[in-house]
Structure formats: C-alpha cells, structure tokens
Amino acid sequence: MAPVLGFLLLLGLCGDTVSEGPLTSTDRSVGLKFEFPPVKYETEESYEAGPINILFQIVHVFLHLVQPNPFPEDILRKVIQKKFDLSKDYEKIIYYEIGIIICAVLGLLFIILMPLVGLIFCSCRCCNKCGGEMHQRQKKNGNFLRKYFAVSLLVICLLISIGIIYGFVANQHMRTHIGKTWKLSESNFKDLRTFLNTTPEQIDYIAEQYTTTKERVFSDLDNIKVLLGSRIYQQLKPKLIPMLDDAMAIGEELKTLRESLVQANLNLMDTKQSLTQLGHNLSDVRRGLEQTLSDSTCHADPVQTTCNDIRSSLGLVNVSINPDQLPSLEEHINNLTAVLRTNLTALAHQGYNYLYTIPERVQNETVNIIADVKRALNSIGSNIETASQGFPIRDRLSYFSSYLKKAEDYIHRYLRVLEEYDLYRWLGCLVACCLLTLIATFYSLGLLCGTYGYDQSASPTGRGFISNTGGVFLMVGVGFSFFFCWLLMTLVVLSFVLGANMEKLVCEPYQSKKLFQVLDTPYLLKEDWKYYLSGMIFDNSDIQITFEQVYSDCKENKSIYATLKLEHAYNITDQVNITKYTGDIYSSFENMNISIKNVMKVDEEGRRNLRAFHSLELDKVDYAAIMAETAKPPTQVNLLTFADNLDAKASNLTPGNLKNSLRSHAETLRRIHDVQVVLLQRLLSAVYQCMQELQQKTTGLGVRMQNILFFVNDTQNFVTNLITAVVHEERRKYVTTILSYFEQYLQWVKHSVTEQIAACKPVATALDSVVNIFLCGYVIDPLNLFWFGIGKATVLLLPALIFAVKLAKYYRRMDSEDVYEDGKVDNSSVSGTWHLTL
User: Fold this and answer.
1) Residue 119, Cβ density class (10 Å: 0-12 exposed, 13-18 middle, ≥19 buried)
2) 822 falls in which pLDDT band (50, 70, 90)?
3) Which of 262, 488, 516, 606 sits a CA distance of 20 to 30 A from 193?
4) Domain locations in the chain?
C-alpha cells in the first residue's frame, strides 16, 4: 500500500503544474472539434478464472457458512492505531473466528485421534480382536451387508475422487497462474511506464491544439469580408432593397409617365385643332346648304317639302365634341419635368452600390484591428508554449521513473524466488494428492477385485485368489489411511486457517471496498490528520480525499486532478476564464467603427422636387370625363349617311341648279369625312387609350411617392438607428464566434485536465493485479479450493476405512468358518490354522 500512496502523492504534486496549461471554448455549434489522443494499456481490467470459477464460488459459499460474521472493522482500526489489547479484545477475535476455530479444532482432533485410533486398532487386531481373527461368522443378511458395504465404499471413493480432483486442479491452477505472474507484472509496469511517458506528451498535445484554434481564428479574420460584411449586407438587404427597388421603379415610371403625358398632350392638341377645323368646315357646308335652299325653286311644291326636310336637319351637321372639354396637360408635364431633375433611378443605383460595397468597406476599415488581433493571438500562443515547456512535471516524472525501475527490479527478483519455492509447494501438494489417490486406488482395486472374484457359492475358507486380493487391497488402503491421514489433515488445517482468513480479511473486504473504508477512518493513520491523503498532498487534512474515492476514480480512469481534488491547490476554472485571455481581443473589436452613412444622398433642391410631385395631382385628373368625351363620335350625324340622303333627295328633283348644288354639297361632306373625320376618329381613339394608361399609372403613385419621400427624408435617422443596430448586432455575433473558438478550446483544456490528463487507471489496475488477481485469484482461491478438496477427501477416509474393514471380511480367504449340522452351527469346528492378518 505504501508504494501506491507514494505514487498517488507524487502525481498529486505533479497535478499542480498540469493544470497550468492553456484553456478552452464552449460553443459546440462552431466547427472546432478536439479529440484527446487515446492511451492504450495492456493489462486486463478484470480477471476471469474460467470454468474453475464455479468451484471457487462453491468454496466461497462454504466459507460464508463457516464464517458469516462481517468484516471486523473495529478490530482492524485498533490494530492500525496500536490500541489492540489481546487480553481485553480476545473475545471479539474469538467471536469473529469462531467458525474457523471450530473447524480448526475438529481438524486438530482428527490429527491427534486418527494416529491414536490407528495404533489401537492395529494393536487390537494383532490380538485377534476388532475383526482380526480370520474367521467369518455366517449371517442370514450377509449378502445384503456385503452389497451395502460395497456400495457405500464405492460412493465414498467417488466423493474422495472428486475431492482429489479438486486438489489436483487447484494445485495445477496455482502453478500455472503463478507462472503468469511475471507476464502480469511486466504488463502492469509497462502500463505504468506508458502512463508516465504519455503525460508530458498529453501536455504538449494540449498546447499544440492552440495552433488549431489560432488558425481557425485567423481564417475567420481573413474572411471578415464574408463573415461580417456579408452578414451586415444580408441583414440590411430585406429592409433597404424593397425601398430602393420601389425608388428605381418609380423613377422609371415617372420617365414613362412623362412620355405618356407628352404624347397624350400632343394627341389632345391635335384633336382640339382637328375639331376646330372640322367645326369651321361644317359651318361652311351649313351656310352653303342654307343659301342653296333659299333658291326660288324651293318655294314651289313638291320641291318645297324636300327643301324643308333638308333645312330641318342642317343642325346635325356639326361636331359633337366640345374642344374645351379636352384640357391641356402642359402644366403637368412641366411640373413632372421639374420632379425628374431629381433622378430617383440614379439615387437607387447609389443605394445599391452602397449596400453591395458594405463587405468591402468592412474589410478595409478593419485592417488594423485584424492585425492587432493576430499579434495578440501569436502572443497568447507563445505564452502557452512557454508555460507548457516550463512544467516541472517532466523532472518529477523522470524521478518517479527511476523509482519505478527499482521497484520493477525488486519485484522481478522476488518473483524468481517465488517461482522457485512454488515448485516445492507444487510438489508437496502433488504428493498429498497422490497419497490420497493411492489410498483411493487401493480401495477401488479392492472393490474391483473383490466384486469380480467373489463367488457366492464358495465357502469363506475356499475363496478364490482374486477375491482374496481384493480384500488385501482394502486392508492396505486402511493401513495407508491410518498412516497418512493425519499428515494430510495437518496440511488441510494449515492451508484452511491461512486461506480462509486471507479470503475473509483481505479479498472480500478489498472487493467490497470495506478495506478502503477502514483506511478512510478520520485520524486513523495519523492522529493529527482527519484525512490522510489530503494531509500528505495539501498539508490540509480537512479536504475530503479518501482511499475509496481515489481507487474508484482511478478505476473509472479519471485524471489525477479530479481524483486528488487538486483544485484546492490550483483552480483550473479560474485559469480557463476566457476574459483572462481574450479581453484585449474583445476590446479591439469593441473599438471597431464601421462607418455606414447615407444610403441615398438627396440635397435640399431634390427634396423640394420630390415634394413638388404632390402638387401635380396626376391621380386627381378627371380621366373619366376626358375618356367619356373622346369616346363620342366626331360629328352629331354621320356625314356619309347625310350625304347619301342629300343625293337621294336631289335625285327626285328636276335637273337644275338646286339639284346640282345639293349633289355638290353631298360630295363636299364626303370629302370632309374622308379627310378630317376619319383622322379625328383615330386621334380620339389615341387620346382615349392614353388617358386610360395614365389613369392606371397614376393610381397609387402618390402614396408610393410619399413613401419614397419619407425614406429619403429619414435616411439619416434610419442609418443612425436601424443600420447602426444591425452593424452592432452582427459585430457582436462575429466577435462571439471568434471568442467561441477560444471558449471551446479552453473548455476542452479544462475537460482534459480534469478528466483525461494523467488518467490514473494503471494505478488502480496495478493494485487490482497485486491484490485481486495475484493474491486472491492466483493464490488464495486455488489454495482454498485445494484444502476444500483435500480436506473433504481426508475426512471421508474415516467412513471409507470403516466400510473397507467391514467389507474385507467378505472378500478375504478365512482360516476357519462356521459349520452347520441339522440347522445348528458348530463354532468349535475349526479347519485350518488360526492367524491374524491385516
């Protein structure tokens, strides 16, 4: 236990420097991933005895029946504190050991009584007593007794054989596995050396991983144009682009609207001019027709009626559209031209260019900041490398390596001695098993020969050679039983007392950790220290570090930092505080000023021009009235129809000036229609379409223009508030991402120091190898199985020899026998010579 404590103490002192390494980052959403290099150890974590483990469990059950008392923690504490007084506490020991004591006393009685009984038995038989006379009395149940004795002896021999097999198996198992002890020790020492060698490598590996973090940060710094500038652009885009698109669209619409107004105005002027000219021409035609109808011919019937009809319809020969109802759009065109001096399309392009150049502007304005951050990162890397190289743990580990080498030489030297003496133990146990085997063999041969050679019809004095040989084998077995059983029982008692106590006092409490709990008793190992380990490591025994907790943590492969609670000497949480390493970086980004000013710069005159758009009132023009007017036909009557009517009426007149004049006016009306009315119809249709398009284009244009004017007027406030907030938020996210790499790295360092660096599993494995595997698995379990098997076989020798003595009478050739005459037995008739044999 002392070397293990020294090892833990040394690593505890080393832990102060291990925890001084670089630190980490927590944002798992970013792409950095750190994987601590795994350390592979050779030694198996657990020991599996194989099929023989069932036999070991049987012995454990037997020991529990013999010794059901719990582990004597109080007695052990007194022994450690040197307060144990045998004269006062012997009752506790007797109470605890009562089962083992009883078994040992019975064994001692067996050892003492069996030689004594054997001596008396031999002496008695030499005096022809105790069955020593070679005379067998005939009994009615003789066959039954012979068979009963034979079957009983056979069963006992089988049970003895099972015990002998246990002994052979246990003896060979111990021999085989003690031979593996050298390999087990080599494996443990190799794991311990691996543990010592990889710890500095783990520290260097953690320091090297800072390079990965730094390179990732450098990459993000070099891509600030995309990572920050593009994010700002993406945040502003959905808020600004719709307004810029609307401004662009309105600018184009205003240009198209002006063109439409100009065209509509031209059509209106042409229409008004055509209407005026048409009105003059139709007035001339009406005057001409009135003069023609004043001819004297029109006063006589029936021409008078025709002339009156024509005179009454002259009012229809006139235009149907009032030119005054077609207003001029010149004023609207002039006002719109003034508005168009403020080029909304150019302003929108200006806004687009401003947005598209935000990433470039961000990159240009952060050149100096990025250079400062990179210098700070390189400085942090230099500090981490210097700190990792300056760890004194390497010197301490090299010291422990030399200590480990001496321990290895010491153990290997004594392992050779152990293997040498184990050979003698193996031979001794083999001899014991062979003696039992020899006795069981004699019994078995006696049963075989006696049963095979027994002739029921033969008289006791006439039994055959084979039957007699069987009886002799049985008696030889009895003699060997008396001669060797006490020696075998002595071996059983010694191994039982040793193995049972080791199992109950070492193996079981070690597996249940009660042994550690005893050692963890406050003020036990040192009166001034509450907890022994914390007193050794920190010189502060109030810190709760227990042997059980250290063993359990090492079993779970936790680091020395967590196992020995080294945060009391070096708080890794304080050391991995991100602000300790990234304060300058955060300050640099906080001072970053990305200037985002006017998106659409409009001077005062431009603002006045945009505001003047409201005075145009294009959406208030009475397009419906104009379209209703232009939808009318140019004349009140169809001139062609009127001309045809004139021709028809003129054809009814007699040839003369009136007839010719009417036909001349009809032709004039046709020319007016073909030349003027048709053109006017096209002009009216064009005006109607223009008015319809203007009505559609101007609908809602005022509201949209008002929004643009609001956007232009409040652009500066928009930049100051919204864009500044967007820039600040995206800058915060960018800095958070940059710092998250450090947070992740520092958290990984913290996790590595507290959970992975110098993981002490080889220490727990080495302790398990010494106690659980070597002592309990290789030695105590087979030792207990050995005495259990040999002890059972030795105890069964007692009933075996009794049945063998009884059975030998039925197999051996007798010197005399009972003679029957008329149903009476004459015991005085003796044939042959009386003699006593064993």
Assistant:
1) exposed
2) very low
3) 516
4) 2-20+54-132+146-198+392-560+757-814, 229-341+620-699
